[in-house]
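task queued by scheduler; priority normal; single chain, no ligands, no partner chains; default sampling; output format set to structure tokens
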Amino acid sequence: MSRARLLSLALLVLSFASTAPAQSADIRSYIQNAWTTLRRSTDDCKTITDERHPDRKQVIYFPADQPLPAVAADLARRCNVDTRQLPKPITAPGTFDADHFSPHGLLYLPHPYIVPGGFFNEMYGWDSYFIIRGLLLDNHLDLARGMVENFFYEIEHYGSILNANRTYFLTRSQPPFLSAMVMAIYDAKPDHDWLIRAYPYIERDYHMWTSGKHLAGITGLSRYYDYGQGPTPDIAAVGDPYYAEVISALATSGIASNYQSLSSTIGPRYTVTACVTGAACAAPAQTALTADYYQGDRAMRESGFDVSNRFGPYSGKTHHFAPVCLNSLLYQTEKNLQRIAEILNRPADAKRWAERARTRQQLMEKYFWDPQKKMYFDWNFTDSARSTYEYATTFYPLWVGLASPDRARDLISNLAKFEQPGGIVMSTYDTRLQWDFPYGWAPINLITIEGLRHYHADEAANRLSRKFITMVAENFQRDGTIREKYNVVTRTTEQNVTAGYHVNVIGFGWTNATFLALWNALPNSQKPALSTAPKPASTSQRPSSSSLP
């Protein structure tokens, strides 16, 4: 999820203590209480704290295109923080050099928001869609709408929806769920005037994804892209060992040269101290990763799927791909904008958005659909080749309603590749990276299951819902927490990640929301008895390919 990891067990303990309720509390009460526990506001002293640098005087930044609000002086007095304006207005991503900016700090937002969990004090881009779904199910409409207003504020004053509201995220966004957020709010409580207000912000967000550096070559599709260069500061600035771990793992696998080319055309190079022998070494060597690798690494963080081997080893080639997930969300945005235009009685706009959605659908069928494997795969537009990496984002076209009935039927026939005792697994590759086998994540389970319901595959949707719900409930009964991700093979929170995020953070916003959404969608006759632990599955599907295909 594009976040710097916890650097010590002490922070993990603090995270647990701040979010775990009493063991005896039932899971529904836990989720209801979590919306209070996970609530943050940039006018609250605790929110401004950066857990990565708790010993430093904290800084909160305000936009440069408007006067400092009265709350700035109040925060400086109450919280002993520096309150500053950004040095210049930001009108678009890539216009602010966050990589060479110091000191980094929190970016002001006018409304309270819900954070994912644990140690996070920022509002994250795509987490927030799923969190908003949960807030609406628990009747927190004002809080949910305030979070969407915060995204409008980011677009207006920070140039785009951000990965999260800290200065080192000013170079990248996260997957475009804004139109889905807006429609979730509108469907909960229709407000014609608010929809008029939302419409141009959705258009601006859409334009960012469909122009300039976010274009995937000449395909007519889009890609993930971060406007910074070199190691991302949310990793490098805190002494995080991630890049050293990548170098060591690549060297051990024998493919380090892929990311360590000596070609003068590669551009600037960045050295990292690492053991490259694959074993402990007394004198770590200075080695380097290419500028192209770092560009892919940054794009991977914008995608939210950090880390897997989906876009090459450690997804270091993410920016070379037009992804199924991103373009599905842009199709959804086009369809939502069509719907909004129809509600607002703007027929010319509605026609334009319908045509754009139809064009994207045709391009996605051309580039992504594999008729032999009967799945959607990402497209490497640099090599003009369709990926063969089997990944759960293949189900996004079901969720957004893009697939034809025949395509949907073929795709659903491949569900067994991903179905495990705890739900949908991210991929069929055991890479020991957190967004691959054997891990399952709440948002992808929700998207897959709702996609199945969209095409009337209710039996499969009910079965997968029960698997995921009972897995979360069983682990809650064990330790009183809800986690960021789960091992869906063993139905536990255990993990064995070799490079990337080693902590399974608790809280957890999108898991809480997914639990509620899946539970509410299940027919009463299908709802499991959560007081009884489910029986362990007799078999589980093992990965079909090596860790570095």
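post-processing summary
- The longest strand covers residues 269-274.
- The two ends are 23 Å apart (CA to CA).
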